[in-house]
Amino acid sequence: MQENYQKKTLGILGGGQLGRMVIQSAINYNIDIHILDPDPNAPCKSIAHDFQQGSLTDFDTVYAFGKSCDIITIEIENVNTEALQQLANEGKEVFPQPHLIKLIQDKRQQKQFYKDNNIPTADFVLTDDRDAVIQHAEFLPAVNKLGKDGYDGRGVQVLRSQADLEKAFDAPGLLEKLIDFDKELAVIVARNKRGELIAYPAVECAFHPTANLVEFLFAPASVNEKIEQKAKEIAIQVIESLDLIGILAVELFVTKSGEILVNEIAPRPHNSGHHTIEANFTSQFEQHLRAVMNMPLGNTELRTPAAMVNLLGEEGHSGEALVEGLDQALSERGVYVHLYGKKITKPFRKMGHATVLDENVDMLKERAMRIKEIIKIKTES
Amino acid sequence: MQENYQKKTLGILGGGQLGRMVIQSAINYNIDIHILDPDPNAPCKSIAHDFQQGSLTDFDTVYAFGKSCDIITIEIENVNTEALQQLANEGKEVFPQPHLIKLIQDKRQQKQFYKDNNIPTADFVLTDDRDAVIQHAEFLPAVNKLGKDGYDGRGVQVLRSQADLEKAFDAPGLLEKLIDFDKELAVIVARNKRGELIAYPAVECAFHPTANLVEFLFAPASVNEKIEQKAKEIAIQVIESLDLIGILAVELFVTKSGEILVNEIAPRPHNSGHHTIEANFTSQFEQHLRAVMNMPLGNTELRTPAAMVNLLGEEGHSGEALVEGLDQALSERGVYVHLYGKKITKPFRKMGHATVLDENVDMLKERAMRIKEIIKIKTES
Question: In this structure, what are the phi and psi dihedrals at residue A131, rounded to the nearest 5 degrees?
Fold first, then answer.
């Protein structure tokens, strides 16, 4: 078989922490990575083979960047998909495929896709504006989502009662039944052009109570074999229905009656897979590389149970970041800290993450919570 | 405790594969690494925060490079230690300490140091030239080593009989009794300024029959607990006797009578520790960082048994490298390939390594040998 990925240049739209961890993996294969990001101090800046500062949403910028690469991928969905489609039309390899990025960018299309493909998901109605939301008071309590541009908890809100309706988004979005879930799971699946398909074991996500982003993650998920199997099957159903090449993180609800519903998907490395760097045979970042470059997919087994905690900027601190507690955390067996190279912190900004490995699953939660208490991202006082 | 390593710049003399793997680790801590190397295409080139092309043995070059860093370390011993001493005298942190690099550069001083500190090692005699070697025919069969500038098998030869004496090195060196060993082990130890000291489990090295460099490595070593313990004790004795800060790889012979003798030492990440990236809780590259930057040392336990195989340039191939067999190797569970970013291959050049993880120790040798047969570093035909 022709292993021509060795001579190919991979372009990534986005130079944040996800791209940074992809580059750390790519170093092992001598793969040159070019990065496009609007931030001149993006986390990938100093380690990319080539770094271009520019807009991810401007057609000409994305097109010109893509022309200089052989294979193009993303680490963020909010990119100019028309430019990517043009590049694909001209013969560049673009994975995930541009039309799928476009579909996933719009939560309305995403939901409709689940429905059209018999993928289990919470009941919903598409809403064009605030008035349309108000027309559907029968959905309450419900989750109101903006169609586009939501990220890390922005563009999503819970509407519990009539009184909440007036804060509904006054733009195209959707309203979905609030699921009284028992657990939130995530399953990452990967698929390459040569037809291989593989799923990671399900992980369990615990969300931050107010910031609406993953606070802790546990692998394995504490669910029975049947739920685990069903979650994987649904994730595989999604990637196959999309016919997507690359990796796909599928966030799932497990309802109190044991039903599994797809919440959202992300066609790129995802916060729910950070632990795979140390905990699994193949990290999600390497798997992303393997999938988009048509390398063989890697084994996804969990080597050691793990917990992951996001290291978020402390409330009340904005400015040049200082990490407290690293010494104490790094003294522990099986603690791995990943800082993202962001000079400036602000409340809830994702500044890094820590993974805890422990053969004893019962210790993971306690240890992860302790690490979160130990490591604080502040500013110099 | 002041964790001021976060704001420090680390300079590394040498930009080869060892520095490259240190940088991969340092990315997790936002540590900026500056590299000095004479090769404009050194493996660290594209991922170092700052890369300076220049001689490692020239006083002015090394001194000027060191002045721009806060902490200075090495990934190769053949550097200008006078410049490093000057930097240390002026208050820079230089680890390992310059006088120890100087001592280790000279195999004669190294051997004398073992003797002076009651560290078990093969009997030897220092020889100033070929005539001096010829005077010590009673040492035969013996190993003849050049005092300085040996590396990866160069500067070392076996003299079996009188007839071999005429090929003895005609320069300052040493002659040591050829040890009829049962096994070769290596133990990596680490020590930081705050007084922590830790040893890795012993590994077993299998050398290439002609090229005199490590071909395979197995962890754990197949030795009994007593030998394992004794090997660690000797490695700790060496680093403590030297009062060295950093990491130290200690190569050891286990004789057929169960004696353990120190062969050679290297005060830097070492080929015998490459498997630690995937196999141990803390890799040797991260441990090196932790030791020289006075971070807490990391746990050294083996997570999964491992074998490592060096990927050397094939004989008969010199020129632009092409890696064969990557696809097949990467399809296997627990196989990790690290390519070093060297464009040009030549026979026996270290172009990369592969690590195989397997819970079943008995499978490791067979799997490692198969990987060596699968992956070939050639040139385009």
Answer: -60, -40
